[in-house]
Specification:
By secondary structure, the protein is mainly α. The protein contains 23 helices and no strands. Helix 3 packs parallel to helix 12, helix 9 packs parallel to helix 20 and helix 17 runs antiparallel to helix 23.
C-alpha cells in the first residue's frame, strides 16, 4: 500500500461524521438498538467508497478489512471460549456457589455496602452486568425499599457493583473486546485496570458505607434472598470444591498463560466437575457448552440468573467485533485516522493529552452512539498510532477505553445500558445518576494518573505479553 496515498481532511472528517450520523439514525430515527452490525457494514461501505475516490484500490481496501479481522481473531476466539466456559461452570456448580456465598453476606447495618460487594462478586463470576442487575439488582431493590432506603441509592450501588465485573471479569464481552481492539493481552489488560478500577472501587465502597450508616438498625426481610439461596442449594452442588476452576484461572493468569489456553482449560475443568458432581452426561455437558445452560428449578429468580452461557450466545458480540474491526481496519489502512490525528496532534502529543482526549472522546461516543461497544471500539483504534508513537503499552490503551467507555455507559439515559438498568431496576437514569460512584471516580483517576505519570506503562517499564513496537522491545534502557 503506497505511503503517498491519503484522503483529504474533508474526506476523513466526512467518514467519521457519517459514522456518528448512522449511529444516531439507528437509535433515534429508526429506533432499533440491536442492528449495529448492519449500521457498521453500511459505514464500512461508505468508508470504502471514500477511500477508492481518494486513490486507493479495492485490493488495498480489502487489505484493511483483513487486517482488522486479523486483530479480531484471537480475542474473538477467547470470547467463544468464554461462552463455552460459562456453559460448563453453571452445571458444575461453580457460578451457583459463588452467588450463594455472595448472598450469604447480607447484613442489615451495611446494606448499601453489601449490595455493592455482592454485585461485584456476582458480576465477576458471570461476566455480565446486565445479568447481575436483572437478578440481584431486582432482589436488592425490593429489600432496600422495605428498609426505607431510597431506590436511587440502592440502584447506584447495584450498578457500581455490576459494572465492576463488566470491567474486571475475563468472562466479560466488553473486557475481551477492549483488549482485542487495543491489541493487548487479556490478562495484561485486567492487571492494568487494577491500577484505576481498584482504587475507584475502594473509594466507592467507602462512600456506600458512609451513605448507608444513616439506615443502620433496620431489619432486612430476607424472604427474597432465602428463595434464591434455597433454589441454589436444592438444585446445585454448593461446595468450596466447585471453586477450584476459578482458582485455576487465577493461578494460570498470574503465570501469564495465554488467555485462550486458560479459557479452554477452565471450560474443560468445569465440564469434568459437572459430570462428577452434578451427574450430567458427556452429551449434556457438550450441549451446555454449545447452546448454554437452561435452569429449570421453577424459581424465577434462579432460572433467570442461571439460564445463560454457551458458544452460540457469544455470536452477536463476536460478529460485531469482526465487523467493527474490519471497519476500523479500513479507517486505519486508508489513513483516515492518521489524517484526523494530525489535526489534533497537539492534543495527543503528550501522555496527559492523549489519555484526557481518549477519555473525553469515549464519553462523547457513548453519548452520541448510545453504545458502550462503539465507545470502546472507535477511540481505541483511532488513537493506536498515538499510543504507538509514545511507546505506551497496549494495556494502557485498553484500560483507558474501559475507564471511560464501559463505566460511563449506564449514565446515558438513551444508551443501551441506561435503558436496561432503568427498566430492570425501575429507577430513572437521572435519579440513580448521582449514586453510581464508580462511573464518576474511574475516569477521574485515569486522567489524574496521566498528569502525575503514574501507571503510564511504556515499553520496558514492565513485562508485557504484547507491545505496539515489538522489534524495539528489548531496549530496556530507553526512557
Amino acid at each position: 500500500m503506497s505511503d503517498n496515498k491519503r484522503p483529504s481532511f474533508a474526506a476523513a472528517a466526512f467518514v467519521i461524521f457519517f459514522l456518528c450520523f448512522a449511529m444516531y439514525a439507528q437509535i433515534f430515527i429508526i429506533g432499533e438498538d440491536w442492528i449495529t452490525h448492519i449500521t457498521l457494514i453500511v459505514v464500512a461501505v461508505v468508508a470504502s467508497i471514500v477511500a477508492i475516490l481518494s486513490g486507493f484500490t479495492y485490493d488495498e481496501v480489502q487489505e484493511g478489512i483483513l487486517y482488522g479481522c486479523k486483530i479480531a481473531m484471537l480475542p474473538m476466539l477467547i470470547l467463544m471460549m468464554v461462552g463455552v466456559l460459562v456453559g460448563s461452570w453453571i452445571p458444575a456448580g461453580t457460578i451457583p456457589t459463588l452467588i450463594y456465598y455472595g448472598l450469604s453476606f447480607i447484613s442489615p447495618s451495611v446494606f448499601l455496602l453489601t449490595v455493592a460487594i455482592v454485585c461485584m462478586v456476582a458480576s465477576v463470576a458471570t461476566g455480565s452486568s446486565w445479568t447481575t442487575g436483572a437478578t440481584f439488582g431486582v432482589a436488592f431493590m425490593g429489600i432496600g425499599l422495605g428498609l426505607g432506603i431510597p431506590g436511587a441509592m440502592t440502584a447506584g450501588a447495584v450498578i457500581s457493583g455490576s459494572i465492576f465485573g463488566d470491567k474486571m471479569s475475563p468472562l466479560s464481552d466488553s473486557t475481551n473486546l477492549a483488549a482485542g481492539v487495543a491489541e493487548a493481552d487479556l490478562f495484561d489488560h485486567i492487571r492494568s485496570m487494577f491500577y484505576t478500577t481498584g482504587p475507584a472501587a475502594l473509594i466507592s465502597l467507602v462512600l456506600y458505607a458512609i451513605l448507608g450508616m444513616r439506615f443502620a438498625g433496620g431489619e432486612i426481610d430476607t424472604a427474597q434472598i432465602d428463595v434464591i439461596l434455597n433454589g441454589l442449594s436444592e438444585n446445585f452442588f454448593i461446595s468450596p470444591i466447585t471453586l477450584i476452576p476459578p482458582i485455576v484461572v487465577v493461578i494460570l493468569a498470574v503465570k501469564r498463560m495465554s488467555g485462550l489456553a486458560v479459557m479452554m482449560i477452565a471450560a474443560i475443568l468445569g465440564g469434568i466437575f459437572a459430570i462428577a458432581f452434578q451427574g450430567y452426561s458427556v452429551g449434556d455437558v457438550a450441549n451446555f457448552m454449545n447452546y448454554g445452560f437452561t435452569s429449570a428449578t421453577g424459581i424465577e429468580e434462579v432460572d433467570s440468573l442461571l439460564s445463560r452461557g454457551g458458544l452460540q450466545s457469544m455470536m452477536w458480540t463476536i460478529s460485531l467485533g469482526f465487523i467493527a474491526l474490519s471497519m476500523g481496519g479500513i479507517l486505519e489502512k486508508t489513513k483516515v485516522l492518521e489524517v484526523l490525528l494530525e489535526r489534533i496532534g497537539g492534543l495527543v502529543s503528550t501522555t496527559r493529552g492523549l489519555i484526557t482526549t481518549h477519555v473525553v472522546s469515549a464519553i462523547a461516543v457513548n453519548i452520541f452512539s448510545a453504545s458502550q461497544y462503539m465507545a470502546i471500539l472507535i477511540p481505541s483504534r483511532m488513537f493506536v498510532p498515538a499510543y504507538k508513537k509514545q511507546r505506551l503499552l497496549p494495556q494502557v490503551n485498553s484500560r483507558t477505553s474501559e475507564d471511560s467507555g464501559t463505566v460511563v455507559s449506564p449514565l446515558v439515559p438513551w444508551g443501551l445500558c441506561g435503558v436496561f438498568f432503568t427498566g430492570a431496576l425501575g429507577v430513572p437514569t437521572m435519579e440513580y445518576f448521582p449514586y453510581v460512584f464508580l462511573s464518576f471516580i474511574t475516569p477521574v483517576i485515569a486522567v489524574v494518573y496521566s498528569f502525575i505519570g503514574f501507571a503510564m506503562f511504556k515499553e520496558g517499564d514492565i513485562k508485557s505479553v504484547k507491545t505496539y513496537n515489538p522489534v524495539k522491545e528489548p531496549a530496556m534502557s530507553e526512557e
